[in-house]
Amino acid sequence: MVSCALVGGGWSRTGESVAALAHIVGAREGEDIGASALNADEYALFAQVGRACRVEAGQRLFQRGDSGTAMYVVANGAIDLDFGDDLVGKRLGSRAFFGELGLLIGDHARSADATVAEDAELLELGRDEFEALAQRDPHLLAQFLRRAIMRVVMNEQALIGRLRRRNQQLQEALDNLRSTTHQLDRTEALTRTDELTGLTNRRGFVLELEQRQREGRLTGHVLVLVDCDRFKSINDTHGHLTGDRVLQSVANLLRAVAGADDIACRLGGDEFCLLLRGHDREAAARITGYIADSARMLERMHNWPPQMTSLSIGACMIGDEGNQWEYWYAQADDALYRAKRQGGDCVEWQV
Ligand SMILES: Nc1nc2c(ncn2[C@@H]2O[C@H](COP(=O)(O)OP(=O)(O)OP(=O)(O)O)[C@@H](O)[C@H]2O)c(=O)[nH]1
């Protein structure tokens, strides 16, 4: 912190306190209460009592957080005030005053760094000088005080306004981020979903298989491949819309048997699959048998137009031999091939 050399002076302590001056009446008409520079009369008064000092460019007068009890008036030269990241800095020239809160409040923590931008002459006023001002011209000092207080109030209001705007911008940015994340999640979910049936699609299924394999959770699952029998003839005889409805019925059947941790998937065309968890071979055989039986019964129940078709099913238990999921997929596919070779409408297991 700079200490000014005393050049002029002549002041005396009075019993009147600085604080007592702060409640003096409101602003008068035409008075520029927010101005940051003294008018000519005020400056002349301050110059009578202020301690004059010279400071050089680059010199630091005080920094943020310093406790200060003096205010300054720029006689000539320039001072920069830096309020930190959130506020715009200020360059002060002739007759501008700063640091007044240090004087008015006493032991106030400075809210800015004050640096000499160009060689300058300053007037420094401490408590004694200020009381001398009060003695010499209380009316002019009251006018100055009103302005100083209004400046603080206006700065506070501007700060609150800026913070409010900043808060609003942050809120908007957060809302945008939330909605973008939500859209990305939705898009990601859509890329894993089959449009016609709402089941997981092949991509989603493979990603899930890979993840369970990476986490060592695949062993013990049952992999079930399902293929519609003579589906092409449904399309040919009744049209694609009927074919679509049959595919949706197959999807509903698989969805109905899938538990929370199982995956029902449409691989594409009339091929589906199920990944079941937590069943031994016997329990899994009951599930695959139930699927085949249900499809057969539904096919017989509604055959014109058809709402279901019989199914060929190939299944295997995923073992712990350390094979990749593609190996088990090929095993289930072999079983499915055998089911097809037998004319469909049956379940084959790969041993
Ligand atoms: N309606 C409809 N048909 C589809 C869709 N995707 C594929 N298909 C048709 O499904 C038919 C599948 O025929 P194939 O692979 O010969 O199977 P299939 O007729 O069931 O013969 P098998 O499996 O030997 O019993 C093809 O005619 C495809 O055009 C779809 O989304 N909707």
* SSE order, one letter for each helix or strand: HHEEEEEEHEEHHEHEHHEEHEHE
Query: In percent, how helical is the residue content?
Result: 40-55%
Low-confidence segments: 1-34
Count of runs of 4 or more consecutive helical residues: 10
Strand count, sense and barrel status of the largest sheet are: 6 strands, antiparallel
Identify the bound ligands: guanosine-5'-triphosphate
Name of the level-1 CATH class of the largest domain: Alpha Beta
- Average pLDDT taken over every residue: 87
Please tell me the CATH architecture of the largest domain by its name: 2-Layer Sandwich
Number of domains: 2
Q: Which structural category do the helix and sheet elements fall into?
A: alpha+beta
Can you characterise this structure?
The protein is rod-shaped, with a radius of gyration of 43 Å. It is α+β, with helices and mostly antiparallel strands. Helix 2 packs across helix 4, helix 7 packs across helix 8 (240-257) and helix 8 (240-257) packs antiparallel against helix 9. It has helices at 18-21, 40-49, 100-105, 127-136, 138-191, 202-214, 231-238, 240-257, 281-301, 325-341; strands spanning 51-55, 60-62, 67-68, 71-82, 90-92, 97-98, 108-109, 113-125, 200-201, 222-228, 263-268, 271-276, 311-317, 346-349. Strands 1, 2, 4, 5, 6 and 8 form a 6-stranded antiparallel sheet that branches. A 6-stranded mixed sheet has the order 9-11-12-10-13-14. It has a two-stranded antiparallel ribbon with strand order 3-7. The model is unreliable at 1-34 (pLDDT under 50). The chain has 2 domains: 18-161, Sandwich (Jelly Rolls); 200-349, 2-Layer Sandwich (Alpha-Beta Plaits), CATH 3.30.70.270. A hairpin with a 2-residue loop joins strand 11 (263-268) and strand 12. The protein binds guanosine-5'-triphosphate. Residues 196, 227-232, 235, 240, 243-244, 247, 269-270, 340, 344 line the site of guanosine-5'-triphosphate.
